[in-house]
Amino acid sequence: MTCQMHDLMHDLAESVTWMENNIVGSNKIASEVGEKCRRISINASLIPLFKGNNLQALLHFPNIRIENLSDETWDLIFANYRCLRVLELDDLNFEKILHSIYKLKHLRYLDVSDNPNLKILPKNICKIQNLQALKLDWCGGLEELLKKIEKLVNLTHLACCGCSSSITHMPHGIGKLSSLETLSMFVVDKDGSLGDADLRELSGLNNLRGEQKFGIRKKCKKRSLRLLI
């Protein structure tokens, strides 16, 4: 079954789509994007030129890498794009995320993967209670996950492949994330003496799907290992 669209309707649909979805790779295009834009793929260095306060999805332009993401650019994102649902800033070589990220109250998807120099996540991420997916894959320098991670009550996907060499434990309270469906790894220390998560917290994650990678940093107690069976 096929159908035909009148040329005028086609042009109208194309016009509306262009207004709401844009790929920006130059200064000229960035300055031409209108306020109605909802989703944009952009060279990160051009973000300061874009003034779309109604933006819902910000994806960095593929295959273009900058040396770092400045504090000024972070501040601009948090101040101007309060309606963001999707923020994808993978492989941009930044070292930190500013604490003011909590201003993105509507954020559901955050991808900061492939940033090996990122060592610490701001604790204020835990204030974004609408967050459903957090991608940290191949952030090889990441020292730990969020200490108050249990506050992310709507989190369904936590991706951290390639972080097992730097993360030594999982945060206490991760077992309270009852909506969690994806957890790419679970690392335990010797005996949880610092109040970190042990294997017992897995019993609260009843919705996990697929395969999970388990890592044990030191010799783990046998009674904890039985929980995996």
Question: What can you tell me about this protein's structure?
Answer:
The protein has 229 residues and is an alpha/beta fold. The protein has a domain at 22-167: Leucine-rich repeat, LRR (right-handed beta-alpha superhelix) (Alpha-Beta Horseshoe). 15% of the residues lie in helices and 15% in strands. The chain contains four helices and ten strands. The chain has helices at residues 7-20, 27-32, 71-80, 222-225; strands at residues 21-24, 39-42, 57-60, 86-88, 109-111, 133-135, 157-159, 182-183, 185-188, 213-216. The strands form two sheets. Strands 1-2-3-4-5-6-7-8 form an eight-stranded parallel β-sheet. β3, α3 and β4 form a beta-alpha-beta unit.
Summarize the structure.
This protein is α/β, with parallel strands linked by helices and 229 residues long.
Q: Indicate the structural class.
A: alpha/beta
Describe the largest sheet: 8 strands, parallel
CATH superfamily of the domain at 22-167: Ribonuclease Inhibitor
Q: Taking all residues together, what is the mean pLDDT? A: 79
Task: Catalogue the unreliable spans.
Answer: 6-19, 218-229
- Strand arrangement within the widest β-sheet reads 1-2-3-4-5-6-7-8
CATH topology heading of the domain at 22-167: Leucine-rich repeat, LRR (right-handed beta-alpha superhelix)
How much helical structure, as a percent, in the residues? 10-25%
CATH class of the domain at 22-167: Alpha Beta
Global morphology: elongated
Order of helices and strands: HEHEEHEEEEEEEH
Number of strands: 10
Number of helices: 4
CATH architecture of the domain at 22-167: Alpha-Beta Horseshoe
**Percent in strands:** 5-15%
Distance between the termini: 52 Å
Q: Provide the gyration radius in Å.
A: 21 Å
